Amino acid sequence: MTNAATLRRADVADHAALESLQSRASLNNPGDRGALLQHPDAIEVALADILAGHVFLAERDGTIVGFGTVLPRDDGQAELDALFVEPALWRQGLGRLLLEHGAALARLRGAAALHVVANTHAEAFYRSSGFEATGTFKTRFGSGLLMLRTLTPG
Ligand SMILES: CC(C)(COP(=O)(O)OP(=O)(O)OC[C@H]1O[C@@H](n2cnc3c(N)ncnc32)[C@H](O)[C@@H]1OP(=O)(O)O)[C@@H](O)C(=O)NCCC(=O)NCCS
Questions:
Q1: Which of 67, 96, 110, 144 meets the CB 3.0–4.6 Å disulfide criterion with 117?
Q2: With a 6 A CB cut-off, is 29 part of the ligand 1 pocket?
Q3: How far apart are CA 122 and CA 118, in angstroms?
Q4: Stretch 133-141: mean pLDDT, rounded?
Q5: Which atom of ligand 1 is nearest to the CA of 91?
Q6: What average pLDDT score do residues 29-41 get?
Q7: Does residue 98's CB lie within 6 angstroms of at least one atom of ligand 1?
Q8: What does the pLDDT look like over 42-91, one tens digit per residue?
Q9: 84 within ligand 1 shell (Cβ under 6 A)
Q10: Which CATH number fits domain 6-150: 3.20.20.70, 3.30.365.10, 2.60.40.200, 3.40.630.30?
Q11: Mean pLDDT, to the nearest integer, of 106-132?
């Protein structure tokens, strides 16, 4: 199976590996590279999110191959705050695996919807995973797409 990977909660010891994976994945998005190289501080995984149990990752043979962060929102819904897959392993189902895990976690916490501010490069991925666009959002580096997926009770 191409997407055989194990999922687990991230630990503080994973912090550096997650930030370097995020850097590789983000720099691989055409168009984002220049802005990110000028603003390396944009690559950040918050230790507080790891400690709070909001960050989860996928591993293959002990190597981290992707991770995601799902945060609770003030309105009781959930926000997919990060989703990154090792670029050499894109289109093998790892993004979907991580997304479904994040959606399941959000559902378990009682959220009825999962929101994301989607990078335009990831729009097709989110649409194919059940998200719909609800608007646009001005990000630090341009425009992002506000997207939403309704979570049905599992
Ligand atoms: C977006 C991202 C997480 C997707 O991860 P992935 O492991 O490649 O995604 P999957 O293999 O699970 O893709 C599932 C489906 O999404 C769609 N999809 C994924 N990437 C796509 C692309 N570049 N173009 C069109 N459709 C795409 C396809 O329908 C795909 O199924 P298929 O391969 O059978 O056709 C990954 O590309 C990434 O890390 N990008 C950089 C960081 C980023 O932009 N993250 C999103 C922040 S909002």
A1: 144
A2: yes
A3: 6
A4: 87
A5: 11
A6: 80
A7: no
A8: 889 999 999 999 999 999 999 999 999 999 999 999 999 999 999 999 99
A9: yes
A10: 3.40.630.30
A11: 96
Rounded alpha-carbon distances, angstroms, from residue 5 to 14, 63, 74, 112:
17, 10, 32, 27
Using the atom order of ligand 1, give the atom closest to the CA of residue 126.
Answer: 16
Indicate if ligand 1 lies below 6 Å from the C-beta of 122.
Answer: yes
Exposure of 132 in the CB half-sphere (CA atoms within 13 A)? 5
Residue nearest to ligand 1 atom 27, measured at CA:
125
Q: Which residue has the higher pLDDT, 30 or 138?
A: 138
Name the closest-CA residue to atom 2, ligand 1.
Answer: 95
Total length of the chain: 154
Closest residue by CA, ligand 1 atom 10: 93
- Closest by Cα among 107, 64, 101 to 86: 64
Say if pTM beats, i.e. exceeds, 0.90: yes
* 60 C-beta closer than 6 A to ligand 1: no
| Contact (Cβ atoms closer than 8 angstroms) between residue 5 and residue 111 | no
Given a contact cutoff of 8 angstroms between Cβ atoms, the answer to whether 98 and 67 are in contact is yes
Domain positions in the chain are 6-150
